[in-house]
């Protein structure tokens, strides 16, 4: 399974905000830190704000912050929110018809794998992936070009 850039960027943004809970952060600073385009981050910000993950404040001294405590942001819930198509293979997608239907159990196995993947993520929160006492400058350097599909 491959997560989209949207999920990747959402996780990066939430981690950054979780490491800076005491202040408002801007799209420009997060984009610069992660070396991703501000345009992409604006889309992610809109989606996260709309979903109640972050709070935004407009204006000269504006920015964003987490809308929930990091320990209340569940990773499984976030992935379900940001991923629009969790079908691992085409035959799991909605409205598809596989010619092997009825003669192949792969789809059942992959469905269970997806359930287990998401269930595993349900055991973790944003707090679990933020290194305690760290600032963005101290965290592991993320790749500048994601290998995930958009």
Automatic annotation (TrEMBL):
<protein>
    <submittedName>
        <fullName>Rrf2 family transcriptional regulator</fullName>
    </submittedName>
</protein>
<dbReference type="GO" id="GO:0005829">
    <property type="term" value="C:cytosol"/>
</dbReference>
<keyword id="KW-0238">DNA-binding</keyword>
<dbReference type="GO" id="GO:0003700">
    <property type="term" value="F:DNA-binding transcription factor activity"/>
</dbReference>
<dbReference type="GO" id="GO:0003677">
    <property type="term" value="F:DNA binding"/>
</dbReference>
<dbReference type="InterPro" id="IPR036390">
    <property type="entry name" value="WH_DNA-bd_sf"/>
</dbReference>
<dbReference type="Pfam" id="PF02082">
    <property type="entry name" value="Rrf2"/>
</dbReference>
<dbReference type="InterPro" id="IPR000944">
    <property type="entry name" value="Tscrpt_reg_Rrf2"/>
</dbReference>
<dbReference type="InterPro" id="IPR036388">
    <property type="entry name" value="WH-like_DNA-bd_sf"/>
</dbReference>
């Amino acid at each position: 399974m491959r997560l989209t850039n949207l999920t990747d960027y959402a996780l990066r943004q939430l981690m950054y905000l979780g490491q800076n809970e005491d202040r408002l952060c801007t799209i420009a600073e997060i984009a610069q830190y992660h070396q991703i385009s501000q345009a992409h981050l604006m889309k992610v910000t809109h989606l996260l704000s709309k979903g109640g993950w972050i709070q935004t404040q407009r204006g000269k001294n504006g920015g964003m912050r987490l809308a929930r405590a990091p320990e209340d942001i569940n990773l499984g819930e976030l992935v379900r929110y940001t991923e629009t198509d969790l079908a691992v293979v085409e035959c799991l997608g909605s409205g598809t018809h596989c010619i092997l239907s009825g003669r192949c159990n792969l789809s059942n196995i992959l469905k269970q794998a997806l359930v287990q993947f998401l269930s595993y993520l349900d055991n973790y929160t944003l707090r679990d992936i933020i290194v305690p006492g760290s600032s963005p400058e101290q965290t592991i350097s993320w790749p500048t070009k994601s290998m995930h599909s958009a």
